Amino acid sequence: MSYCREEGKDKIVFLEKDSAVKNDSKTMSLLPSDLEDEPGLVLENGEINWNCPCLGGMSSGPCGVPFREAFSCFHYSQADQKGSDCYEEFAKMTDCFRKYPDIYAEPDGNKEENDTEESTPDASSEQTSDETSATSDGKKS
Amino acid sequence: MQRVGRSFATKQLLRKFDNLNARVINIKAQDFEKTAIPILQCNYSNGAHKDVTQANKLVRYGKWGDRDPYKDINGFTLPKFVSQGFLQTPTYIRNYKRYASSDRPLPPPPPPPPTKESVTPYLIIGAAGAAGLGYYLWKNWTEFLALLGICPEDKTDSPTSRKEKRADDPISIKCDKEPERECVVLNTPTPDQPGDGPSAKRLPPPKYPDWKNCPAIPGYASYLIIGAGTAANAAYRAIRTNNPKAKVLIISEECNLPYMRPPLSKELWFNDSRKLTEDLKFKQWNGKERSIFYEKDCFYTSPKELPYKSCGGVAVALGRKVQKIDVENKVVSLDNKWQINYDKLLIATGGKPRQHPIIDNSDEEVKKRTTVYRKIVDFQKLDCVTSKGKSVAVIGGGFLGSELAVALGNKAKKSNAKIYQIFPEKGNMGKVLPQYLSNWTTEKVRNENVNIIPESTLTKATMCKNDKVALTLSNGQEIQVDHIVVAIGLEPDVSIAECSGLEVDPIRGGFLVNAEMKAREDIWVAGDAASFYDIKLGRRRVEHHDHAVVSGRLAGENMSGKSKPYWHQSMFWSDLGPEVGYEAIGLVDSSLPTTAVFAKACKSDSPRAVVEETNENLRSETEESVCIEKVKVDSETKPAPPNGTEDFGKGVIFYTKDNVVVGMVMWNVFNKMSIARRILKEQRKYDDLTEVAKLFDLHENN
After folding, report:
1. 3-state secondary structure of A29
2. Is the pLDDT of residue B187 over 70?
3. Are B112 and B105 in contact (CB under 8 A)?
4. Do residues B402 and B458 share a domain?
5. Which residue, among B370, B424, B359, has the nearest Cα to B397 in the 3D structure?
6. Which end of chain B is more exposed for a tag (fewer CB within 10 A), N or C?
7. Record: contact A35-B549, CB cut-off 8 A
8. For residue B702, is it within any domain?
9. In this model, does residue B90 exceed pLDDT 60?
10. Which residues of A touch B245 (CB under 8 A)?
11. CA distance B197 to chain A (A)
12. CA-based radius of gyration for chain A
């Protein structure tokens, strides 16, 4: 049985398991209907959301500019194999990554593979520093 | 030209100015070195190109002996550099530019240019000048090094205090492992030219034009940030995200690159490996190592190289204090008289921890054994002390005090040292949690090997003959400890407010800013030092990590063109050892009426479980990222007996004002922050908060 008591201005309720079942229609109505979800990697107008925590520190780091150029090229690429016409941009980006091995080196393979549109925004590696910048925006799946 | 003994480079510049019908009188060589480059930068700051390389090329590498007044791309004529005993500061030039571009009459025309001279005298004078510059550098070597942030002899917290000790310098105690206090020397700058791969770090300084003349700290920065903490870190990321080629210059009084503070009172104390603690890294419970520094050293550019970076970057100038901001002319003055022009300024100075008044009036010996806890050096000192098994008294019963007491209590379990915690409230977190919960928490802290002395304050602190400190408390008790830790609150750093003309909040302290974190034109403030207007909850000043991130990010976005108000509520969290923790959001003040809904906690409801699941120690990041598996338990949850021993294991506490929820504490309930945010945002009057509490699935793991 749930019960409650009061201590001055503070009210305490102990909730029993059974009565903790959500009465869907009643309690869910308490949740605001407009759930403002932060946009993911791609905004509504089709542009890339550079603020997305899934990108980690990539778009604002030392290699931010070449990364953006490469990724934008890939994103808007209409070629049969998406991104195949973006070789130059990706080459510049990789060159830049090589200059900062401490930040961009990935112990198990290429960093670029994680940055394709289809990638799931997983928790970034230790070298990137996205974790401290995101609060609760963006989805982490 | 009046002087001999100037460097060849200076001569070249003066010559150029002479060809531009300028006269320079009575300017000392070294001053001219300092002012010349910023002037050149300044002239082009609003032009089509902000790159000093380009600017210098136009002036210095133009045609030799050119007699025409020099015009830049915008058709603006470079002004005369005429002085009557005062320096050509960037301020003068800015004023001139404004003056020249207005409708007012221009200054009188310049005198006719001198005739072309032969080169030979210059070669002779140039050689003498080079010798002169060499002599000057040799004479002022230490000053020159200090500009670069290298202080080889300095063992105190700041390189500028070698001559006089500042009041807050941690005076070193005899400790086996003296903590390192040198300034971080940034890596050799990496050149921008393509093709320079991993060997770039071993190259000599890059061959930029004017590299030798360039000042160690630029005279101009489009984005300038004062303070190198969490808010600054969030801000420069936001700036660089919105403006990818932004050049951000950070000025920091301290000697550390930006780092996060929460581990200094939590994770770093629970490391298994000694090496990790010394490296300022911690292992999260899932095995993943993490440094407290936000970025690796190579992420940052050196301040000297910043103007040359075509793709922008972030530079941190360490060990420099800002003395004054000239808001109207947008100039910042440092403690070494260097001036920096800016376009946008962020003040993220945070604060200084408060010293206890009784200890402040005590002997030097007592002060030597006191740590006013906030920074990395304080952690290192305390770590050293406790590693020797010394007894410690923690003064303060808030977040920092309680977390430290638990951490120290845990460490002292092996050495049998005594850890005390002294505070005036009735229980730990007495100002935040309702009374009953505060009492319960105090018991939990006692279980972590801490001798808690509540409802008491320090009245006297004296040295004993056995080299311990005797503390006399207001309740008459007297205890003897080896070391004292003070954690009684933060004093926001508003030292530059008065002389800069910035408003300070008399009630809450800190710089007064609006909902967009703006104090004055082109000046923003974020983090602990900002008293801001929260649209939902009114004016506040918040001293938490997540708030620094949120407000820093908001300020950064507003600096790079947007104008968003503060709406995303920041949260905070605290752990009392690995078993008990909570997350909170909004106004969490124990003086407000509260309604709490509890269920019994089980093993998977603990901070440890959360981190193991989400791979993330900063719990501001774990929202919406976890599906905690439902653990099947045979026994049914029995309701707690009324008036018996209540176990406040897991629940939600709502803080209300006029029946509207203004704050929430999720007690051992994790990853439900998004629900809490939504409830807070709604600001609805709820009749039955028990129904609302059901949204948090309190029995999820039962």
Report:
1. coil
2. no
3. no
4. yes
5. B424
6. N
7. no
8. no
9. no
10. 65
11. 5
12. 23
Q: Output the six-digit token pair for B584.
A: 């909170």
Tokens 């005036």, located at residue: B424
Is the domain of B346 the same as that of B361?
no
Q: Same domain for B349 and B366?
A: no
What is the domain extent for residue B237?
132-197+211-256+295-353
- Radius of gyration, CA atoms only, chain B: 29
Asked if residue B431 and residue B322 are part of one domain, the reply reads no
Question: Which of B472, B488, B504 is the C-terminal boundary of a domain?
Answer: B488
Residues near B473 by beta carbon (within 8 Å), at least 6 away in sequence: B422, B453, B456, B457, B458, B459, B479
CB pairs under 8 A between A and B: 187
Distance, C-alpha B657 to centroid of its chain: 33
Q: How confident is the model at residue B679 (pLDDT cuts 50, 70, 90)?
A: confident
In chain B, the number of structural domains is 4
Q: Nearest by CB to B690, from A15, A99, A133: name it.
A: A15
Q: How confident is the model at residue B609 (pLDDT cuts 50, 70, 90)?
A: low
- At which residue do the structure tokens 């004054």 appear? B324
Task: Provide the shortest C-alpha distance from residue A71 to chain B (in Å).
Answer: 14
d(C-alpha B406, C-alpha B384), whole Å: 17
* Count of alpha carbons within 13 angstroms of residue B647, beta-carbon side: 12
pLDDT of residue B259: 95
- The verdict on B465 and B579 lying in the same domain is no
In a domain, B127, yes or no: no
Q: How far is CA B353 from CA B14, B22, B683, in A?
A: 50, 52, 34
Residue-range domain boundaries for chain A:
1-29, 42-115
Same domain as B145, residue B43: no
Question: What are the contacts of B657-662 at 24+ separation with CB within 8 A?
Answer: B657/B587, B657/B592, B658/B685, B659/B685, B659/B686, B660/B684, B660/B685, B661/B586, B661/B686, B661/B689, B661/B692, B662/B537, B662/B586, B662/B587, B662/B592
- In the prediction, which pLDDT does B149 show? 53
Contact B599 A26 (CB under 8 A): no
Q: Is residue B107 one of the residues assigned to a domain?
A: no
Polymer length of chain B: 702
Q: Cβ separation of A133 and B553 shorter than 8 Å?
A: yes
d(CA B67, CA B19): 5
- CATH code of B324's domain: 3.50.50
- Which of B560, B624, B670, B677 would you mutate first to test chain A, the one with the most A CBs within 10 A? B624
pLDDT digits (tens, 9 = 90+) for A36-51: 556 778 888 888 888 8
And the tokens for A115?
A: 């940055």
Residues B50 and B69 both lie in one domain: yes
Inside any domain, residue B664: yes
Q: Could you give the C-alpha distances from B130 to B8, B11, B60, B207, in angstroms and in order?
A: 6, 10, 18, 19
**Do B394 and B408 fall within a single domain?**
yes
Q: Cβ contact (<8 Å) for A99 and B200?
A: yes
| CATH placement of domain A42-115 | 1.10.287.2900
The reply to whether the predicted model has a pTM over 0.80 is no
Tell me the CATH number at B386.
3.50.50.60
